[in-house]
């Protein structure tokens, strides 16, 4: 299942709720302010990568917030084309 998180983990509980429902084969994409959840020092950073989940951030949102150098080392950056490809690859999706 593809989970797309849009809101900051400091403003809502969307990311923590997503992690409660995500399975080991889930793919998580953080966009907009949710990219702050992928920072190396984020309280939820370690939880994102349990079960070896695939975690992506939208590159343009990371650059817009100036946090490229602070991302968790396991997070993968994708562009808009990569996001479209993930949505095509996953029939089941949920946006938080």
Automatic annotation (TrEMBL):
InterPro entries with a match to the protein in the record: DsrEFH-like, Sulphur_relay_TusB/DsrH
What's one Pfam family here? Answer: DsrH
The record's SUPFAM superfamilies line, in alphabetical order, gives:
DsrEFH-like (SSF75169)
Domain of life according to the entry:
Bacteria
Q: What is this protein called?
A: Sulfurtransferase complex subunit TusB
Organism name:
Salinivibrio costicola
């Amino acid at each position: 299942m593809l989970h797309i998180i849009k809101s900051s983990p400091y403003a809502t509980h969307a990311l923590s709720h997503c992690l409660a429902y995500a399975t080991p084969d889930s793919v998580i994409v953080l966009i907009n302010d949710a990219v702050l959840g992928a920072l190396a020092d984020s309280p939820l950073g370690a939880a994102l990568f349990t079960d070896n989940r695939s975690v992506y951030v939208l590159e343009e949102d990371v650059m817009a917030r100036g946090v490229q150098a602070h991302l968790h080392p396991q997070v993968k950056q994708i562009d808009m084309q990569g996001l479209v490809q993930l949505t095509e690859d996953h029939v089941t999706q949920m946006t938080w």
